[in-house]
Amino acid sequence: MAKLEKYRQLVREILTEYSSHKPSYGEVEVELILDPERDRYQLVHVGWSNRRRIYGSTIHIDIKDDKIWIQNDGTEEGIANLLVDRGVPSQDIVIAYHPPNLRKFTDFAVS
């Protein structure tokens, strides 16, 4: 249980850090969505830029089966790398946006 709480805290910290980075263009808000009951965490960009609608999940992370599942990662440095730097073993991180048959070729968990 302590491991799960640590993972929740790390995910919240990382997403909170990213939520402070406001786009330099348009009228775009950065929404931080935290659902610790269901272990769903997202960072979403919402708004308008040059009469064009902006909407999308920049980061989406789930915690399930005692592992951190990175569903979407729109960052340059990579959320998985940040988690490893903060002490999460790579075998507890699933890069879910990679096809299951290719995950075995990464340094991270298959599932």
How many distinct domains?
A: 1
CATH top level class name? Alpha Beta
Neighbour order of strands in the largest sheet: 1-2-3-4-5
Mean pLDDT: 94
Can you summarize the main beta sheet?
A: 5 strands, mixed
- General form: globular
Give a description of the structure:
Helix content is 23%, strand content 38%. It has a single domain (2-105), classed as TATA-Binding Protein. The chain has 2 helices and 5 strands. Strands 1-2-3-4-5 form a 5-stranded mixed β-sheet, with helices on one face. The model has no long low-confidence stretch (mean pLDDT 94). The chain has helices at residues 2-19, 79-85; strands at 27-35, 40-49, 52-64, 67-73, 93-95. It is of the alpha+beta class and 111 residues long. The two termini are 20 Å apart.
In short:
With 111 residues, this protein is of the alpha+beta class.
How would you summarize the topology of this molecule?
Blueprint: H1 2-19, E1 27-35, E2 40-49, E3 52-64, E4 67-73, H2 79-85, E5 93-95
Name the descriptors:
globular, TATA-Binding Protein, single chain, 111 residues
